[in-house]
Design a protein that fits this description.
Blueprint lengths: L1 E7 L2 E13 L6 E6 L9 E6 L2 E10 L14 E6 L2 H27 L5 E7 L5 E7 L7 H11 L2 E6 L2 H8 L10 H4 L9 H6 L6 H4 L14 H9 L7 E4 L2 E9 L4 E5 L5 E4 L1 H6 L1 E3 L10 H7 L8
Parallel strand pairs: 3-6, 8-9
Antiparallel strand pairs: 1-2, 2-3, 2-5, 4-5, 4-6, 7-8, 10-11, 10-14, 11-12, 12-13
Helix pairs in contact: 1-2
Length: about 300
């Protein structure tokens, strides 16, 4: 709960604003909306101002307001009012209509022998549009399919091809951590993930360990990558030599989260140096490599015959 100041017809007044978590779909992603209603409970159906007008949604629970009283929090959506009984009935029938449309579309895909896989169907609350999400290995000519769908549902039809990561986001599931998938839970966009991030965090490069349900690299590899990168920046790299008194250590491994170094001394024993210990050490500069003679130097001197006159 927070208070915002509004200017209405030249008059300034404070209005209490409450924040709620909601979902447009039962298994969909959660969002935050601000409202002036203070008695909403989990499971209540409300009307949210969306991109295409008012859309129904289900309350998941209350969301905390900003702890700083001087900062005014702004939510992504605005909760307008409670849904009317008629709107609640229409909202409850949407999943059944989408399931029926999905089954009908799958029959048409088999009829037209199209190499595509239907993922999900979304029907707008006002019935003005239907979106069919699908995956395919190559480009698909679905003009005949769209024509049949328009003739059946008498509304605007859009076919939208998605990748495997977006498919997993729509279907949802449980990750290896035991929690809901990040992409289906709260992520709004996919960041670029590379194998370098796994190497930076000393993770095993086994594909089964660092891949998600979508068989792509885990999105959570990006969460701590910058922290590891920042902490490693000031630490001696593996292979470098450190000298403390008369003892010379060779760095074997870095532990960025604890700011420690695993080193090996001249006798082959391992030691764990804290930040204070390895900062007091002196970095040993590598000896310069001996200069190699160029291959052309021998040819200039000519062959050695052993007969000098």
């Amino acid at each position: 709960m927070t208070e915002v100041q509004e200017d209405n017809s030249g008059k300034s007044e404070k209005q209490t604003v409450f924040f709620y978590r909601f979902r447009f779909r039962e298994q969909g992603q959660e969002f935050t909306a601000q409202a002036t209603l203070d008695d909403l409970k989990r499971g209540d159906v409300v009307m949210i101002r969306g991109e295409f007008g008012l859309e129904p949604a289900c309350i998941s629970g209350s969301a905390p307001a900003c702890r700083d009283s001087e900062t005014v929090r702004k939510a992504s959506y605005e909760l307008i009012r409670r849904a009317a009984p008629e709107e609640c009935n229409r909202y409850a029938n949407i999943p059944k209509e989408e399931e029926s449309a999905e089954n009908f579309c799958k029959e048409l895909i088999a009829k037209h022998s199209l190499q595509m896989r239907l993922v999900r169907v979304e029907r707008f609350f006002n019935g003005s549009k239907m979106i069919f999400y699908f995956t395919a290995d190559k480009r698909v000519d679905f003009r005949a399919l769209v024509k049949d769908l328009v003739q059946e549902f008498r509304t605007r039809v859009e076919m939208r091809q998605v990748g495997v990561r977006h498919e997993t986001k729509m279907l949802g599931g449980i990750g290896t951590c035991g929690r809901e998938l990040c992409c289906s839970g709260y992520m709004k966009k996919f960041d670029s993930v590379s194998i370098k991030m796994a190497k930076e965090q000393d993770l095993p490069l086994n594909p089964s360990k660092i891949s998600g349900v979508c068989n792509r690299l885990l999105c959570c590899l990006t969460y701590e990558f910058e922290t590891y990168k920042r902490e490693r920046k000031g630490m001696p790299k593996p292979g470098k030599k450190l000298q403390a008194g008369n003892t010379v250590y060779r760095v074997k491994r870095q532990n960025p989260l604890q700011s420690r170094l695993l080193v090996i001394d001249q006798e082959g024993e391992q030691h764990l140096l804290t930040r204070e210990e390895w900062q007091e050490c002196t970095l040993v500069k590598p000896e310069p490599a001996p200069k190699r003679k160029k291959q052309g130097d021998k040819e200039k001197k000519g062959p050695n015959t052993g007969d000098e006159r």
